[in-house]
Amino acid sequence: MTAAANQSGRRPTTSRRLERAGIRDVAAAAGVSITTVSDALNGKGRLPDETRSRVREVAERLGYRPSAAARTLRTGRSGLIGLTVTTYGEEPFTFTEFAYFAEMARAATSAALGRGYALVVLPASSRHDVWGNIALDGTVVIDPPDQDPLVSELYRSGVPVVSDGKPGNCPVTAWVDNDHEAAVLGILDHLSEAGARRIGLLTGTSTDTYTRLSTEAYLGWCTKVGQEPVYEAYPAHDPAAGAVAADRLLARPDRPDAVYGLFDPNGTDLLAAARRYGLRVPDDLLLVCCSESDVYAATEPPITTLSLKPRKIGTTVVNLLIDAIEGVDSGTGVDIARLFPPRFRTAGNGPPPGTLMPTELIVRASSQRRSPRTTVSAPPPAGRGVDLTRTGRRPPGRRRDPTEPGQNGPCGTARLTLRRIGYPPGDDAGRVVFL
Fold it and tell me: Which of 106, 148, 103 minimizes the C-alpha distance to 124?
């Protein structure tokens, strides 16, 4: 390219084309003031609908986007909210590898974008001061342990915090959780009804609400029904430890005939351990685990799972957090300070108001005993009926009814008597199937 060509204005034209349109460009193109552009795009001021629509059309045509820095100066907000898991403290933990956390984070991201915020996933700890380098309007903390130092620091800094999990002694603005006690009791009742007589638990060693309340519900149920607790605990952030704990549980002399695992990998861990010990699922061992993974629908056998509904929880925690950030409850218009006064947000005075989400037990083959095997007995000689009474004979003088069970019907169909195997004598429960 020649110097003359360089002087022809082509490069400046290209540069201008790549430049980002500013608020002054929108104002000039729409023939209004900068203040009018700001009011029109932010839904403020008393502007005619025609003016507001024209400004928005011009901004869209020019590709104008408000400056994040300018918005921060104007509103005092960055438009960023954080999300982190502090359950395991300093331990390395990639929470997106677990289906629950991945589903929850996906839903939270969508909910945040829907209300004009961006979600930033942050580590619980780092050798870099990432928390100090990002201006957050609020934070969602998943399953904080008791006396969580991060939550306490955010509270002291005046940053609203909403927790996924009922907090213990953590000063949060609001919380969302499941009724873990009811969920665990429902699972234990389900396994009992399926024939389990000694139910075990695979649990964790952390102090988060989910682990603590679920374990307490199991121990309380054992006391109520008179069963000695049979459980193994392990650090849930370590996947390898789960397989070891499952092996220990099934190697015990008081081995359970049914197990509920609190964490996502427990289903496959227990299934593998059962095979190592020659236990058939569900014949010898009934299994249930808490998971959102679709993998358990395709295992052999398919494993019953408890769903905590992470998508609903993710959406709810973000909406509660943004309501707190903006100072108004979106559903009622009530000042958020009246809904969550400071006395509820200080440690030691009990948790603030919370929201409980339902759970769902997805029942599959692993928690249902198979139907007993059957044998087929040969039909009696022609002309002799079978009366399904204790004597097995027709009362004297009773006329033969060709339509009653045990008779050859008018079409001469054959009959098969099914006898259940493995039941006490006298409990044969004969059934007649007409073919």
Answer: 148
Map tokens 């990432």 to a residue.
130
Structure tokens at 114: 């829907």
Higher-confidence position of 159 and 15: 159
Other C-beta atoms lying within 10 Å of the C-beta of residue 386: 19
For residue 417, the surrounding DSSP H or E stretch is: strand 415-420
Distance CA 317, CA 306 (A): 21
pLDDT of residue 255: 96
SS3 readout for 264-275: CCHHHHHHHHHH
Task: State which of 87-96, 310-319, 397-406 shows the largest mean pLDDT.
Answer: 310-319
**Are 402 and 409 in contact, with CB atoms under 8 Å apart?**
yes
Distance, CA of 318 to CA of 295 (rounded, Å): 28
Query: What are the structure tokens assigned to 331, written together?
Result: 């559903």
pLDDT tens digits along 149-185: 888 888 888 889 999 988 877 788 899 999 999 999 9
Amino acid at 46: R
- pLDDT-derived band at 309 (thresholds 50, 70, 90) equals very high
- Stretch 121-147: mean pLDDT, rounded? 74
User: What tokens were used for 291?
Assistant: 């998971």
Q: In the sheet where 360-362 sits, what is the strand order?
A: 230-234, 199-204, 258-261, 286-290, 304-307, 360-362
CA-CA distance, 370 to 256, in Å (whole number)?
A: 18
Extended strands (E) in 21-105: 80-85
Instruction: Report whether 72 contacts 78 (CB < 8 A).
Output: yes
What values do phi and psi take at 272, rounded to 5?
A: -65, -40
What percent of the chain lies above the pLDDT cut of 70? 66
Cα–Cα nearest to 388, from 434, 435, 425, 429: 429
Report helix angle 23-30 to 34-42, nearest 10.
100
Q: Where are the beta strands (DSSP E) in 122-263?
A: 138-142, 161-164, 174-178, 199-204, 230-234, 258-261
How far apart are the C-alpha atoms of 214 and 212, rounded to whole Å? 6
Pairing status of strand 415-420 against strand 286-290: unpaired
Strands 415-420 and 431-434: antiparallel
> What are 366-425's pLDDT values in tens digits?
999 866 554 455 555 555 444 444 444 444 444 544 444 444 433 333 333 333 333 333
Beta bridge partner(s), residue 78: none
Torsion angles phi and psi, residue 233, rounded to 5: -120, 145
What residues have CB less than 8 Å from 41, skipping those under 6 apart? Answer: 55, 56, 59, 66
